[in-house]
Amino acid sequence: MPKEQGEKLVASNKRARHDYAIEKTYEAGLVLTGTEVKSLRQGRANLTDGYAYIDNGQAFLDAVHIPEYSQGHWTNHATKRTRKLLLHKEEIIKLSHAVSAGGYTLVPLRLYFSDGRAKVEIAVAKGKREFEKRQTLREREDKREAERAMRSRNRLGE
């Protein structure tokens, strides 16, 4: 039984939700070294440049920056190394089919601890064009304005 209970968010990739249209998400475990885990427990990681790929029936996470552990010494890890993802074989097959179909990529959305184990949420995503990004921002702004108007209208009616 792990000491920790619940979820503890380490890092999230807000840029991915802006740049990509998220189709489906998967939770994957990570193969990490000891100093990487200690660095993550300090809440230090960066997912912005990260991506995942499938190679020979295995999933890998690349270009995710986990800084060196401050109290580590010669056993410290490389900050941007390729890390293996732990997924079921069926999930890996689904992901490889989605990516090979074209236009889709695997993007890490968030890195967290779930009951003491490091997990990453990866998404099958399609890149947005510039006008789609602007449209999404406009829709979000319109929704905020409508909520503000409703709030002020409700206050006046009381």
UniProtKB/TrEMBL annotation:
Tell whether Nucleus is among the UniProt keywords: no
Alphabetized Pfam families for the sequence: SmpB
Region annotated Disordered, chain positions: 135-158
Highest taxon of the lineage? Bacteria
Q: Where in the cell is it found?
A: Cytoplasm
The free-text function statement in the UniProt record for this protein reads: Required for rescue of stalled ribosomes mediated by trans-translation. Binds to transfer-messenger RNA (tmRNA), required for stable association of tmRNA with ribosomes. tmRNA and SmpB together mimic tRNA shape, replacing the anticodon stem-loop with SmpB. tmRNA is encoded by the ssrA gene; the 2 termini fold to resemble tRNA(Ala) and it encodes a 'tag peptide', a short internal open reading frame. During trans-translation Ala-aminoacylated tmRNA acts like a tRNA, entering the A-site of stalled ribosomes, displacing the stalled mRNA.
Q: What is this protein called?
A: SsrA-binding protein
Q: Which organism is it from?
A: Microbacterium oleivorans
